[in-house]
Amino acid sequence: MHWLTPLLILAVLVGTALELWLTQRQAATVARHRDSVPGPFAASISAAEHAKAADYTLAKLRFGRLGTLVDAALTLALTVGGGIAAIDELWRRTALAEPWLGVAVIATVAGLMQLVNLPFAAWRTFGLEARFGFNRSTPALFAADLVRTVALAIVLGGPLLIAILLLMQRAGRWWWVWAWGLWLAVLLVMAWAWPAFIAPLFNRFSPLHDQALKARIEALLTRCGFASRGVFVVDNSRRSSHGNAYFTGIGRHKRIVFFDTLLERLGAAEVEAVLAHELGHFRLRHVRQRLLVSLAASLVGLALLGSLARRDWFYSALGVPRPSIHAALLLFVLVVPVFTFFVTPLTARWSRRHEFEADTFATRHASAAELASALVKLHRDNANTLTPDPLYAAFYYSHPPPLARIARLHAAAAHESYGM
């Protein structure tokens, strides 16, 4: 037995056990504080709302445990369990040549994984989210979204997959350099095309009609030196009552998008403060840093794949007796997340630091008190727990825990008042 086989099994088991243990800690902490609203939130969040957030969190954690177990079992079944090998042998009976053999095998594995995850997605939407009053989607809309997603995967992902398989087959040992260049080009094209052509397939985007709010936002953009193609409102209320805001696009083609549910709940000054926070990510180059790290990681990953794909032991150790370019790609995609899971706390910590920095930026261009007020409303309306387990939060949270974040903003607001 090659050393990689027990290493993968051990990594899956340890990662799964760690996830379940952290989830249990989170559940115990949330349940323990269910009936006690933290002091800083007592004036804004009722005991009933706090209890709902706790119950919603506990339900998501129970649901997540099942997903964790299924993901672990599926990873082992497809790799060392021989799943990929069996699918590969089945398609070889058709006498397909590369890259079509690879496309068929990869599409089958992807379809199988989609089928396994489909009941979870349906239950999350029509069970969990509906139970707590967040779901607004219908079975017809859910099915339409699924069809559009699969169609996009075929239309956009299919040619990219064929191109990568051809590069692996014909471009020599340095194929991964060309593949990385292709990936970079696709990312840039998608960043440009997504807001204009792809996102509108799923949602309606309309210009912001509130002229007073629009003028306030444009003044903020001017103060922050930010160029945008416009401010848009997306009809997220068709699917969910959760609220959010985001940027999309690149260069001068960036768009600011608000969920209609967010605008229903926040005042103009609060919206301005939330936007100032998001602008902080751009002005402080957080988006650029994350993009560069992602591109560097993808280059390293492709280089590693290029090395492993030439070694027979990589295939045999992971349950595939017959080496092939498509098997190398599948195994790599399935196995790498098993090991990168253990660096989650580092990426989460980096993200939390960026969030604090963006908050500080926002307090220089908008009101710290209004940002704190907006965050309290978002936590309340999205039923986010206010009392996470510290270890769980340190491992997973990409945003600072609510109490720590609001405390910093309240301190900044007090400084603003004192300065006035």
Mean of all residue-level pLDDT scores: 92
Beta content:
under 5%
Instruction: Please give the radius of gyration in angstroms.
Output: 24 Å
Distance between the termini: 71 Å
Q: What is the string of helix and strand elements?
A: HHHHHHEHEEEHHHHHHHHH
Number of strands: 4
State the helical fraction: over 70%
Question: Which strands sit side by side, in order, in the main sheet?
Answer: 1-2-4-3
Number of helices: 16
Q: How would you classify the quaternary structure?
A: single chain
Largest sheet: 4 strands, mixed
The helix-and-strand class reads mainly alpha
The global form is: globular
Unreliable stretches (pLDDT < 50, length at least 5) are none
List keywords for this structure.
420 residues; mainly alpha
Overall description:
The protein is mostly helical. It contains 16 helices and four strands. It has a four-stranded mixed sheet with strand order 1-2-4-3. Helix 1 (4-32) crosses helix 15 (390-396) and helix 14 (368-381) packs antiparallel against helix 16 (402-419). The longest helix has 32 residues, at 47-78. The chain is globular.
